[in-house]
Each structure stands twice: as structure tokens, then as C-alpha cells.
Amino acid sequence: MSDPFLIDGPAVVSFSGGRTSGYMLRQILDAGLQPDVHVLFADTGKERAETYAFVALVAAWWGVEIHHVERPGQFTQLITDRGLPNPVFRFCTQELKIRPMRDWMRAQGYDHWTNVVGLRADEPRRVAKMRAADEQRRERWDIALPLADAGVTEQDVLAFWAEQPFDLQLRSYEGNCDLCFLKHPRKRQQIMRERPDLAVWWLAQEARTGSHFRIDSPSYTALASQGDLFADPLGELTECYCHD
């Protein structure tokens, strides 16, 4: 049986700056990083400081070159150009992560490549959704999901990082995107309570556009100005992938 972590180029290893994709990168390095396989980190401009520190540590400790890519003007300019994204039209992922990586590969002269994504075996719905999208894709790349193929679970990832000399200094509910609108309102409110400085940008975007990131939960202004609005446990209102 072939090693799912032995990736043939040309390929992009999509490194989000999270523990799961970091684990995937380590397995790819251990299998042997092949020519024309590039590690890319897409900087949205709203990553936590801990994420940038973690990406730098991965590069230094593991001796791997990580290319930082970004959309000009990052998230702020995207909102100026297109307004606020929302759970239905979540174009921020496409515009801030997928397209900058695509543009980087095209700039290197590649016409077709494999995009290596860190979805685990214990995320079957996400895996099935991405595989289905891959079959219908008309883009320039194929998808590889080596973690899912290898049966890797969150428990495997956490056990790995518990043995490492460094780790991502974020709690599970925080995530790389500092106040992602896909997070459950209680999570966002908790983060805003602990780090009120992180709320400033999100409040400003709602104020300058006169709209909200989502209509099915309180605005950032409401979350910032009111007390504990939610009695349910810290959970996701919908899928949030910004921490992987």
C-alpha cells in the first residue's frame, strides 16, 4: 500500500497554521518532501499572533520553507470590494486562501497541481463534501486528503503535539481567525471578553458597511455590549474550519 503522505509534485501543502495541518506537514516531511511540492500559508490579515508565531516555529524547528501568500489588502480590502461575507456566501475562504495559493502556483509556471488539505478521518462529512466537490471541479488542481486516507483522528493529532517541544498556543475554541463569524456566538463573546482588542476590527467592519456578518445570531456590537447572552456550552453554530 502506498504512503498517503508521499506526495508527488507539483503540489501545494495547504498549511493553515493549525495543529491538524501542522501534523500533516510533519508526516509529509517524514515521508520525504518531493520536488515541486510547496508549503503555503495563506495570511488573511486576521490570524492570531499565536498563529504567526507557530508558523515561524514550524519553519525553524523543521527546516521547511513556508511561503506566505495573501490577497492584496487582505480581509479589509476584500470587504471594501465586496461587502461582508456570511455563512451562505462565505467568499472569504475562496478569496483570502484558495485564490492566493492558486495565483502563487500559477506565478511559478504550473498549469495543474495537487492541493493537499488537512481533513481528518473523524471528519467524514467534510471529507465527503470535499471529495464530491473535487469530482465536479473545473479548476487547475486535484485534491489529496492524506490524513483521511491514513485514518488519522483528532486524538492522534493532539497526542503528537503533546510530545513536541513547541505547540500552537491557542485553546480549542479560539482558532486561528481571531473572531471568525462562523464561530458560535458564545465562543465569540467569550473571546471578546478575554481579548476585547480583537473585537475592534469586526465592530468597525459592521459599522462601515451598515450590515452584519450574519442575521441568524447577534451582531458583534450586540455581543460586545451585552452580558452573557447564551446558556449553552461552547459549541459551533455552524462549521468553522479556521483552526485546523
Topology record:
Elements: E1 11-14, H1 19-31, E2 37-42, H2 49-62, E3 66-69, H3 74-82, H4 91-107, E4 113-116, H5 124-136, E5 141-144, H6 146-149, H7 154-162, H8 185-194, H9 199-209, H10 220-225
Parallel strand pairs: 1-2, 1-4, 2-3, 4-5
Keyword list:
2 domains, 9% strand, 10 helices, Rossmann fold, 5-stranded parallel sheet, 244 residues
Précis, in short:
The protein has 244 residues and is of the alpha/beta class. Helices cover 43% and strands 9% of the residues.
Share in helix: 40-55%
Oligomer: single chain
Distance between the termini: 27 Å
Our estimate of the beta-strand percent is 5-15%
The first-level CATH class of the largest domain is given as: Alpha Beta
What is the tally of beta strands? 5
* CA-atom Rg in angstroms: 18 Å
The shape, in one word, is: globular
The CATH superfamily name of the largest domain is HUPs
* SSE succession: EHEHEHHEHEHHHHH
Q: Determine the number of helices (DSSP H or I, runs of at least 4 residues).
A: 10
Describe this structure in words.
This protein is α/β, with parallel strands linked by helices and 244 residues long. The protein folds into two domains: 11-162, Rossmann fold (3-Layer(aba) Sandwich), CATH 3.40.50.620; 173-244, no CATH class. Helix content is 43%, strand content 9%. It contains ten helices and five strands; from the N terminus they run βαβαβααβαβααααα. A five-stranded parallel β-sheet has the order 3-2-1-4-5. α2 links the parallel β2 (37-42) and β3. It is globular and about 55 Å long. The model is unreliable at 229-241 (pLDDT under 50).
